[in-house]
Specification:
By secondary structure, this protein is of the alpha/beta class. Helices cover 42% and strands 15% of the residues. The chain has helices at residues 16-21, 42-52, 71-75, 81-96, 132-142, 154-166, 169-180, 192-200, 207-228, 253-262, 274-278, 285-291, 324-340, 372-391, and strands spanning 2-6, 26-29, 60-65, 101-104, 116-120, 126-130, 231-234, 268-273, 296-301, 303-306, 312-315, 349-352.
């Protein structure tokens, strides 16, 4: 397993030298400054890779996370030929610079969604949290989406009403900021009015429509990825449930199987995210890792603790509901199978996904979930787990 680290480029508060000090060797990066749907120029890719490969660091750009899918492709609006061509050209430019693993997601409008960015945990550290009551309050009482009442249990709807009645404007602003923070690579954020207008594009849009548009995207880009030797790997939805009236189509084992069958090629693979899948059915995650192992090209390893109403909180990497040892054991078994088959790319890159703010993180700016010390703790724990299982 290749120890990797998500780095947000020159604007990241965490330096490449600090990343090198964690022991990671693979960098997970993207050209966030390029608008969605535009071509990533080969020169820009080469410049970023040269920066990452600065002498003395021992780092290389191994994974793109992510090459974003333009919103029009998800909605299926208009003539998409230019957008598909641009995506294929970006893949070609990445391959020309030796980068061959590309993570992406097909979540409408937002990436991962949380309601709290700094919930206190042991010793004064802080964690990310998704609170079903506050999410329902936002949908019902801020967006005015009355139909959201059918998306939550009656008790959650009642609790959301009580929270909304007691909340002041500062609490609402903090909630909006937390929900918007799930776009770590996109520097634009939405106001409530803007979000309401964007959601209108998806009114009446269901899972079948989104699945059809994903299948169309795969038909357009997977053959090019095959020719280029690129491994595309879709990221599961986070959280793995419908929110804001937006359909989720990569939230379960059946969903993943449907996506992989839509283009039955090694170029159409999976980013195994134990936290995203674990927020739904944590007991199933090790079995999903084993089931889809041949198509897993990249892994996000993190853990969560769930609650009966659908809320969940991010835990330390080895302390949540997901049996991380069983997941890592499945990944090691797949690496050995690949090596036995003579594959040069047998090793699977993984990164410690998210992390608590601990120690010096508490006074330092960073993308929510992407602290230095919290992820370094996670990486150290996962490193020890993997070495122990490999030796056992």
């Amino acid at each position: 397993m290749i120890e990797s680290w998500r780095w947000f480029g020159p604007l990241d508060d965490i330096t490449l030298a600090e990343v090198a000090q964690t022991g990671a060797t693979g960098i997970v990066n993207a050209l966030h400054e390029i608008p969605y749907g535009e071509v990533w120029p080969r020169a820009a890719i080469a410049a970023r890779r040269a920066m990452i490969r600065s002498p003395g660091l021992g780092l290389d750009w191994l994974v793109v996370e992510s090459l974003p899918v333009a919103e029009a492709i998800k909605t299926g609006e208009g003539d998409l030929s230019r957008l598909f061509a641009n995506y294929r050209q970006s893949l070609a430019n990445l391959a020309a610079e030796g980068i061959r693993i590309v993570c992406y997601n097909f979540m409408p409008l937002l990436d991962w969604t949380r309601t709290d960015l700094d919930v206190p945990v042991r010793g004064g550290a802080t964690a990310l949290r998704f609170d079903a009551v506050r999410m329902a309050a936002f949908e019902l009482h801020r967006l005015g989406r009355a139909e959201a009442a059918a998306d939550y249990p009656a008790g959650t709807v009642a609790a959301a009403g009580a929270w909304a009645q007691a909340a002041g404007e500062a609490a609402w602003e903090a909630l909006l900021a937390s929900i918007m923070a799930g776009l770590p690579g996109a520097y634009s954020r939405y106001s409530v009015a803007e979000l309401r207008a964007l959601l209108a594009r998806y009114r009446g849009f269901d899972r079948a429509a989104l699945r059809a548009n994903l299948a169309r995207f795969l038909a357009e880009v997977v053959p090019a990825a095959e020719d280029l030797g690129i491994r595309l790997c879709i990221h599961p939805d986070d959280p793995p449930r419908d929110i804001l009236g937006l359909p989720r189509i990569v939230a379960s084992g059946d969903d993943i199987a449907r996506v992989l069958a839509a283009a039955d090629s090694p170029a159409n693979g999976l980013t195994l995210c134990t936290g995203s899948l674990g927020a739904g059915s944590p007991a199933e995650v090790p079995a999903l890792a084993a089931r889809f192992a041949p198509r897993i090209h990249f892994a996000h390893l993190r853990n969560v603790r769930g609650e009966p109403d659908g809320s969940f909180q991010e835990s330390a990497h080895l302390e949540g509901d997901v049996d991380m040892a069983a997941v890592v054991r499945a990944l090691i078994a797949e690496e050995r199978r690949r090596a036995a088959a003579g594959r040069e790319d047998a090793a699977i890159p993984f990164r410690p996904d998210h992390g608590h703010r601990i120690g010096a993180d508490l006074g330092r700016a960073s993308h929510p979930g992407y602290s230095l010390n919290g992820r370094m703790r996670g990486l150290a724990e996962l490193r020890g787990l993997a070495l122990g299982l490999a030796a056992g």
